[in-house]
Amino acid sequence: MTEALERFLSDLDAEIRKHGNWGEVADYIPELARVDPAQFGIAVSLADGRIVTAGQARQQFSIQSISKVFSLACVLGRIGEQVWTRVGREPSGRPFDSILLLEQEHGRPRNPFINAGAIVTTDELLTGRQPKEALSEILAFVRAAAEDDDIHIDKAVARSEAETGFRNVALANYLKSFGNLRNQPEMTLGTYFHQCAIEMSCVQLARAGRVLAGLPDAPRLLTALKSRRINALMMMCGHYDGSGDFAFRVGLPGKSGVGGGILLIAPERASIAIWSPGLNVYGNSMMGTHAAEQLARRMEWSVFGS
Ligand code: GLN
């Protein structure tokens, strides 16, 4: 199977490079606006411990919202079910940076993967601690999951977002006005921008995702129940208002980031990371989604059956 997968990924890489309809890079974060959209990499970590790659699988990129999966895992480890008093677990059907439902729902964000929800989970991680300590916890989780210590935060990206992230400033202040932010908005946001600026390659991210796929060689960092639940949230909310379309086309839990990364989980089979920085209208990787669709179909990995 590994050889067939290798061939498939290298054909997919060639096809995308020839016909790529790349989409647009995120331009509201100046550091990300400078990235060439016409890039592609993929890494598939399999249950037998092997990792199959194609394209720019070792090139590091900004994981952005994929970090929300790891911060949620840390919060669940810390306070468990209590987190659901501050954030919901329903799809929002709204863009990732939407403020609309917050008023209606009295400052309790719909889910931990939209920005408002992730700002709340990061705020929770800051309880009684300094930003440095909260960030160390997230980084330690990611490094342990990937079994790779060479994973860092790109401070220039964090700074760039801090200078222009006015929507997030609005969201944090709005959350604070409802009493759903414990720390000062600047402190929570500073931490959130830094967690989003973690840089990883597809190989590192696919390795980190093994804990969610429940692969035999994955470090034991999450209970099976927790990883099932995070997968459910990824399926329903991982691609914002594009989550339905993603589930329809791919049939696997996934989490996107505006850096063009996608973490895709085929439970008990594989953990997959895809990167292509050009985005579709939902802010999800255009060619990454295409690749996820082709891969899931070819491998018959959809959770809805083969
Ligand atoms: N840091 C980005 C933001 O808050 C993350 C968004 C994303 O990746 N969808 O806007």
Structure description:
The protein is of the alpha+beta class and about 300 residues long. The chain folds into 2 domains: about 1-65 and about 200-300, Beta-lactamase (3-Layer(aba) Sandwich); about 65-200, Beta-lactamase, CATH 3.40.710.10. About 50% of the residues lie in helices and about 10% in strands. The protein contains 14 helices and 8 strands. It has helices at about 1-20, 30-35, 65-80, 100-105, 115-125, 130-145, 155-165, 165-175, 185-195, 200-210, 210-215, 225-235, 245-250, 285-300, and strands at about 40-45, 50-55, 60, 150-155, 200, 255, 260-265, 270-275. A 5-stranded antiparallel beta sheet has the order 2-1-8-7-6, with helices on both faces. Strands 3-5-4 form a 3-stranded antiparallel beta sheet. Strand 1 (about 40-45) and strand 2 form a beta hairpin. It starts with a helix and ends in a 7-residue tail after the last helix. Glutamine (GLN) binds near residues 64 and 258. This is Glutaminase. Homotetramer. Its EC number is 3.5.1.2. Belongs to the glutaminase family. It is an enzyme of class 3 (hydrolase).
Number of domains: 2
Mean pLDDT comes to 97
Task: Name the poorly predicted regions.
Answer: none
Protein structure class:
alpha+beta
Proportion in β-strands? 5-15%
**CATH-assigned fold name of the largest domain:** Beta-lactamase
Helix content: 40-55%
Distance between the termini: 16 Å
User: What is the alpha-carbon Rg in Å?
Assistant: 18 Å
Strand order of the largest sheet: 2-1-8-7-6
Q: How many strand segments?
A: 8
Number of helices: 14
What about the largest sheet? 5 strands, antiparallel
The CATH top-level class label of the largest domain: Alpha Beta
Just name the CATH architecture of the largest domain.
Answer: 3-Layer(aba) Sandwich
* Overall form: globular
Order of helices and strands: HHEEEHHHHEHHHEHHHHEEEH
